[in-house]
Amino acid sequence: MKRKTRKAIRENLSSYAFLIPWLLGFFVLTLYPMAYSLYLSFTQYNILQPPKWTGLRNFFVMFAGDAQYPKDDRFLNSLLVTLRFVFISVPLKLVFALGVAVLMNRKLRLIPFYRAIYYIPTLLGGSVAIAVLWRRLFAGDGVLNTILRGLFKLDPPAWISNPKYALYTLMLLAVWQFGSPMIIFLAGLKQIPQEYYDASSVDGAGRTRQFFSITLPCLSPIIFFNLVMQMISAFQSFTQAFIISGGNGSPLDSTMFYSLYLYIKGFGFGEMGYASAMAWVLLIIIGALTALTFRASGSLVSYGSGE
Amino acid sequence: MNKRASGMLRAGYLNSLIIVLGLGMLYPILWLIAASFKETNAIFGDPGLIPKAFTLKNYVKGWSGIGIVGFSAFFRNSFFICALCVVANAVFCSLTAYAFARLRFAGRNIWFAILLITMMLPGHVTLIPRYIIFRSFHWIDTFLPLIVPKLFAVDAFFIFLLVQFIRSLPKELDESALIDGCGKFGIYWRIIIPLTVPALITTVLFTFLWTWDDFFNQLLYLNSPQRYTVPMGLRLFLDSSGVSSWGPMFAMSVLSLVPSFILFFSLQKYFVQGISTTGIKG
After folding, report:
1. Minimal Cα–Cα distance from B216 to chain A, Å?
2. In whole angstroms, what is the distance from residue B216 CA to residue B149 CA?
3. Which of A277, B23, B228, B242 is most exposed, with the fewest beta carbons within 10 Å of its own?
4. Which is nearest to A106 in space by CA: A191, A210, A190?
5. CATH code of the domain in which B256 resides
């Protein structure tokens, strides 16, 4: 009996040896930093002096504020800008991804080639190079406006430097990168049995009817998966807004993404306690939205009966 | 015969629709490439894709960089960081994945659940304490904060990808190796690793691409231009130069996209696999 337990312990230890790097990383680079940033979110901290406990003040300043600690309007603005970005760009991205995937879900010889072409914007779109390009394309004297003026005799605004439109150029850039959900949709479409379509054609269903009665229900778990993944990553967008706005969310904070404001607060103004508080608010918002999506999906998503 | 002809016609329509849409999507990138070969005064607002006067001046001027640091230094730095991250991720993520997929130990399910949770966690909640930790090590303005975390398998996405892949391998191979006297490490090294090559390639690919394009961490940790990477170099260009240097800027932008482009076209099928198993973010 005793020998057996000793053997089991040795077995366990030799397995855990393989996990040491990851476990160390988890404790030192994830768990401890999380706990520490939670602590910092209740303090005032500028990295040079030790943190000063201020209780809930950081959160108070974000959402309420009073005469002594005025409300930080830029915070709510950055949250609203980000929410608008997420709620417009993510659904549009998924619609495009699904549309192109359905278009490509045929027996065409060139599918791998087409798939590659449509993935290129996603491959390159996250880079600084493309953000720089975007700034040029949508500038007042940029390519888009030259086309609009020359071909359609319009008088278009300077998209990038107009606070009314700047955010839309960022949304367009995000939607343009629909390659990943497209590939996932394509893989999902291949899983739908052809018999469903054959049977429904016999019953006289047209293509539109088939799309809504077969394709969408069968794909619903994948749509849901894509929605959650894209939402989580859209909330964290940073690089494109940073480059296109010149690092300060301009014009007039209209492209001040949440991550950008967090960076500016923490590393520009040295308000690291406040930035930590923002990080935790972001975590809670993302968590809540994900949970809500899970909830809502319960009635909409069909995982098949497994028969 | 008639039916077949109409089918071919439809396929033709479909093909042309896909191609026209695709070209529309690629237009910005094609324009960028064209602009990098145009004279600077011809770049503004010229929507054409074929330069009227073809020039390589932009590339020459861009490569010499700004001030004392040339673009070759930025490329060297980027490649150096990427190479180390790629190796570290391949080794440590596969080691961790092997443990989760094959080894039995107390608490395995709990640890695996934790791994999945860390996959969804926004990096912001660890950002500032990590910065404080690395600062206390005097690692600011070095490459270490960009590379060292990879030695601890922090990219849970790849662990998950590799776990899924290793689980799909037949277990009989491990068992026969065990009978032949292979230890746990022997099985990992001789059996699992050679069979996991496709998933390892996916890991290597995405590690390279994300590290190559990663701007946020480089912005955070690198301060002096000699240590700048390609994205930071482009940003320096953007900030420090006026209207006159859009040409060189575009030329360097094109160069910065070349490595991703080559990798993508030479290893396309691994991309598709990586994206469809983990839903990797775009």
Report:
1. 7
2. 15
3. B242
4. A190
5. 1.10.3720.10
The CATH homologous superfamily for domain A74-297 is: MetI-like (1.10.3720.10)
In a domain, B230, yes or no: yes
Residue B43 lies in a domain: no
**CB-based contact (8 Å) between B61 and chain A?**
no
Residue B113, domain member (yes or no): yes
ipTM: 0.89
Q: Which of residues 87-146 of A touch B (CB under 8 A)?
A: 100, 103-104, 106, 108, 110, 112, 114-130, 132-134, 136-137, 141-143, 145-146
pLDDT tens for chain B, 282 residues: list them. Answer: 566 777 778 778 888 888 999 999 999 999 999 999 988 777 776 778 887 778 888 898 888 877 778 899 999 999 999 999 999 999 999 999 999 999 989 899 999 999 999 988 999 999 999 999 999 999 999 999 999 999 999 999 999 999 999 998 888 888 888 888 888 899 999 999 999 998 999 999 999 999 999 999 999 999 999 999 999 999 988 877 665 678 888 999 999 999 999 998 888 877 777 776 665 554
| B262 lies in some domain | yes
- Nearest-angstrom CA–CA distance, B198 and A114: 23
Nearest CA in chain B to A172: B25
Residue range of the domain that includes B188: 63-278
Question: For residues B277 and B119, what is the distance between their CA atoms, to the nearest angstrom?
Answer: 14
Establish if B278 touches chain A: CB-CB under 8 angstroms: no
Question: Judged by CB atoms within 8 Å, which residues 77-106 of B form the interface with A?
Answer: 92, 95-96, 98-99, 103-106
B128 touches chain A (CB under 8 A): yes
Instruction: Determine whether the interchain pair B22/A118 forms a contact, defined as Cβ–Cβ distance below 8 Å.
Output: yes
Q: Tell me whether residues A235 and B265 touch, CB distance under 8 A.
A: no
Closest CA to A77 of A175, A163, A168: A163
How many structural domains does chain B have?
A: 1
CA angle A262, A264, A267 (to 5 degrees): 95
> Coil, strand or helix: which one is B77?
helix
Contact B151, B169 (CB under 8 A): no
Q: Tell me whether residues B11 and A108 touch, CB distance under 8 A.
A: yes
Which among A106, A117, A224, A23 is positioned nearest to B152, based on CA atoms? A23
**Nearest beta carbon to residue B216 from set A22, A24, A238:** A238
**A239, A126 Cβ separation under 8 angstroms:** yes
CB A235 within 8 A of CB A285: yes
Residue ranges of A 45-64 with Cβ closer than 8 A to chain B: 47
